[in-house]
Amino acid sequence: MRAVFEAYEPLVRAIAVRGFDGFAGFVSPCDRDDAVAATFVNAFSPATRQSYKPPTPYYSFLGGIARNTMRGMLRKAGREVPVPTGDPGTDLQAPDLWNPEAATSQCQQSELTCRFLEHLADPLLQSVALQTMAEGLSEQAAADRLGITRHQLRKCLETIRTRTRSFLKKEGLA
């Protein structure tokens, strides 16, 4: 369970920070931490672990658990997250929700990104990639959050760039 937590915590934290379906993400670091912890409590429950079907990528399964957990937290706090209806007039991200080409492209990009994060294997590199690229943190802010020096972070970014090229070449996208 520790290995799963360490590997997927950046993904769950990114969902808590960036949000989903019209929810802009948690502003408070305490709420973010609570959301991450509650997600893994739900994911590690015996019933949830038994419901996982291995052909489904684990990151997709865990992402669904994270969104449902966060929706429940928001409901308890008296806030509602809109559920995508497919009606372009009611959804904040309507074009991506009702346009099949855009939805397919977004799904493929998401799967490719998750496969790349798994390809990195090193949890530090995964965290650096998520914080600098997905969350858009500056080098100094990401280094501070990770508890490393800016020089170490730059070395990680150099490694990520090298591995990105090899990954894209392996995927036939170079």
Key structural traits:
single chain; globular; Arc Repressor Mutant, subunit A; 9 helices; 174 residues; 2 domains; Rna Polymerase Sigma Factor, Chain: A; mainly alpha
Tell me about this structure.
The protein has 174 residues and is mostly helical. The chain folds into two domains: 1-81, Rna Polymerase Sigma Factor, Chain: A (Orthogonal Bundle), CATH 1.10.1740; 103-174, Arc Repressor Mutant, subunit A. It contains nine helices and no strands. It has helices at 2-18, 29-43, 46-51, 58-76, 94-98, 100-120, 123-134, 139-146, 150-170. α1 runs parallel beside α7, α7 runs antiparallel to α8 (139-146) and α8 (139-146) packs across α9 (150-170). The termini are far apart.
Provide the number of structural domains. 2
Largest sheet: none
Radius of gyration: 17 Å
Residue runs with pLDDT of under 50 for 5 or more positions: 85-99
Helix content: over 70%
State the oligomer. Answer: single chain
* Secondary-structure arrangement, i.e. CATH architecture of the largest domain: Orthogonal Bundle
What is the number of helical segments per DSSP (H or I, 4+ residues)? 9
What fraction of the residues are assigned to beta strands by DSSP?
Answer: under 5%
Count of extended strands: 0
Please identify the top-level CATH class of the largest domain.
Answer: Mainly Alpha
SS-derived structural category: mainly alpha
- Our measurement of the CA-to-CA distance between the termini, rounded to an integer number of angstroms, reads 35 Å
Mean pLDDT: 80
